[in-house]
């Protein structure tokens, strides 16, 4: 049992150690920081979410002017998940980032072809990964080759990257790496895209937008400099006062901070799985769970060892008779406990290596990195320290119990009680408190996962095909594509969206039922949708009407509100939050974005034209569980079509043929909506599997500990049971009495664990945009499961004690 507990702890420790060592292979990592930022509206009504390692475009210039001591400043910017890239022989969609040339100076990335010093210096230059080179050209000897980017720019390949060392926030081997590129282009390529969209102005010429955080901005400190990271962080606190205009600072409070680059990997994992957390990390959660399981194992070891002391009473009594002192007994026992702990460590490490293929797939880690010299040295020291702590923690009480054996009492009675019964019950209670805590959480997580999966099933994402179209790349009008898709016999219906379900977090809109500054504000997730959206997604209308493309007031306008009041559709939950008793009552009524949210005093009005049923369209949100608002816009890039028939192979072929006819030079980007759900749900599935595995181990260990307690109680109550049987107690009475003794600490443990489990479960559910309500059933299930396991684990000892004759008891 100790081996299982140590296995869980060593695994969680190794995983956190792996993530915490991110970027350590880069020589400049210890002197590289990333600028993080947050903003909060002055009235507290809205914020930019948690602290993120992202910053506005203009920040680089201000950093260079304010801190000339810095050796280098560089930005990296995500451009597109599926940028069309064409060569003479193929067309591919590549995940693309743009970077300042100094990025390659800060991170000495390994190049298979070319060199890092000037790879992004020239305009229209590009660096590609090894796999991308094979995909585009079939080999990596491609320096100087030209690729067509976005159908409007020819880029020259100046470098081919070798596989990037991991763990790192840079790379394409982990789904958690935020800078996960296949194509890295020079910054001027992005600026040219901005010029085409803004009538000739790039980010240096446009007014600074301090809310638009899209760059990862790195700063590199010089070696052996008197200017250090602490001084930089202190001066950064007043940075916004020097550079952000008054009109911005009147609207919101902006904060900038410095983040060590090796923290980025952990932050990315946190934001993927727990997007609301502003502090803490997944590493802390996992290590805490691993520690909990190891505590259960140590408690179990103590309980078993205490119960076993009864079998060693005669041995210890004889040793004391021949002159052994308590310190000798304690020393002997600690030596034995140390040997057992060492053996458990060996088994734990062997078990980890045997299970590593599964662990590697589960956690996305590399064995090569885990067995690097640095980690091996730290791991060896950790194993030694852990072994000593485990030996002392688990062996202290049994050693003390053995050292207090009185030889005379053993020889007179022939019975040794084997330690305090109350202490044994407390140990069993601790184990079951932890096990009950984990079981409640597992049950809640399972219920929430079922809730999310049922929402995806209701949408039936396996029949919804997503086709991405960016007119500035393809030249294909959105309405033309929609009409052409609807003419295909394989398409039942079609719509468009700005943000797909299960992918990015939607924006948040603050609404009030009155334009007054004192009106109560309510948060809602905003979904911008196209024509026929609710029908395609099978979302029922409760009251009012849906969007009509022929009514201009239904079309959402960007920027300040126009003369005509705009219309929106809301979810049923928002109706109640706004104070209306029924959905029909809110139809035709106005709701308002408060003036303070807009940076002024005048509220922006919207008219509610429809109320639809609540539906789940995202998994987790930085804003928690809030209702939805729908706006209409006909020009959205994601087309979603519902396919007809049960076999979709021919349907996809028909759509591919249509696309090739309409856009022959750009590869189609299509994917089923269910695939987006699978990708987004993968992180939660890993967390569920990890917690479930740890909880199962904790339960198994607790069962063994309960058996030890049953053995101890049966031995300590031998004479009492004998007397009861002499006085006429029946077998069932003895069995019931013993079961009561066994189950009492288990029941108490469950009641102690329930409040902690409730608050932990509530914190977890608050991460989700649509969460379940916590019902009594997880707690009832845990208590029933605990009592059932108690009866199974102790039935043998109970029945044996109840069945033994009184004469045999009196002889012992």
UniProtKB/TrEMBL annotation:
All copies of domain ABC3 transporter permease C-terminal, residue ranges: 289-404, 694-805
Keywords: Cell membrane, Membrane, Transmembrane, Transmembrane helix
Keyword Cell membrane among UniProt keywords: yes
Localization per Swiss-Prot or TrEMBL: Cell membrane
Domain (MacB-like periplasmic core) ranges: 3-191, 428-623
The keyword Electron transport belongs to this UniProt entry's keyword annotation: no
InterPro entries recorded: ABC3_permease_C (IPR003838), MacB_PCD (IPR025857), Macrolide_Exporter_MacB (IPR050250)
Topology relative to the membrane: Multi-pass membrane protein
Taxonomic superkingdom: Bacteria
Protein name according to UniProt: ABC transporter permease
Organism: Pseudohongiella nitratireducens
